[in-house]
Amino acid sequence: MKLAFVGLGVMGYPMAGHLQNAGHDVTVFNRTAAKAADWVNKFGGRAAATPSEASAGADIVFSCVGNDDDVLSVLTGDDGVFEGLARGAIVVDHTTASAALATQLQEAANERGLGFLDAPVSGGQAGAENGALTVMVGGDQVTFDRAQPVLACYARCVRLLGPAGSGQLAKMVNQICIAGVVQGLAEAFTFSRSAGLDTEAVVEVISQGAAQSWQMENRYQTMLAGEYEHGFAVDWMRKDLAMVLEEAKSMKLQLPVTELVDQFYAEVQDMGGNRWDTSSLFARMQAQGENN
Question: Is 252 a catalytic residue?
Answer without folding.
Answer: no
